[in-house]
Amino acid sequence: MNILAAAEAGGGINMMFIFVMYAVVIGGGYFLIVRPRKKEQRRMQGMMAELATGDTVLTTSGFYGVVIDVTEEDVVVEFGSNKNCRIPMRKEAIAQVEKPE
C-alpha cells in the first residue's frame, strides 16, 4: 500500500514537471522562431512603406536597380545604364533599399 501511495504522490509532481517543460519548450520556440520572424516582417513593411522614386534597390534575385515608379503593390525598376530596361515587379521581390545621398 505504501508503494501505491508514493506512486500517486509522485504522479502529481511528474505531471507538473511535464507541464512546466512544455511551457519552457513552447516559450523558447516563440522567442527563437516566431518573435524574430515578426520583427523581420515589421522591418520589411517599414522599408516598403518608405520606398520612393530614385531609391537604389537590390532584388531577391541579386540585381541592382533604381526605382522609377511606385504603386500600392508594384514598383518599376530600371536596371543598368540602359534606359529601356525597365521592369515592373512586386514589392516583395525587393531585398534591400538604399536611399540616394
Write down the CATH class of the largest domain.
Answer: Mainly Beta
CATH architecture label name of the largest domain: Roll
Overall average residue pLDDT? 87
User: What is the percent of helical residues?
Assistant: 40-55%
Order of helices and strands: HEEEEE
The biggest sheet, with number of strands, parallel, antiparallel or mixed sense and barrel status, is: 5 strands, antiparallel
Q: What is the terminal separation in angstroms? A: 82 Å
Number of domains: 2
Strand order of the largest sheet: 4-3-2-1-5
Judging from the principal axes of the Cα atoms, what is the shape? Answer: rod-shaped
| CATH topology description of the largest domain | SH3 type barrels
* Strand content range: 25-35%
Radius of gyration (Å): 26 Å
Task: Decide which structural class fits the backbone.
Answer: alpha+beta
How would you describe the overall organization of this protein?
Helix content is 48%, strand content 27%. It is of the alpha+beta class and 101 residues long. The chain folds into two domains: 49 residues; 50 residues, SH3 type barrels (Roll), CATH 2.30.30. The termini are far apart. The relative contact order is 0.12.
Give a brief outline of the structure:
By secondary structure, the chain is of the alpha+beta class. The protein has one helix at 2-49; strands spanning 56-59, 64-70, 74-79, 86-90, 94-98. It is rod-shaped.
Topology:
Elements: H1 2-49, E1 56-59, E2 64-70, E3 74-79, E4 86-90, E5 94-98
Antiparallel strand pairs: 1-2, 1-5, 2-3, 3-4
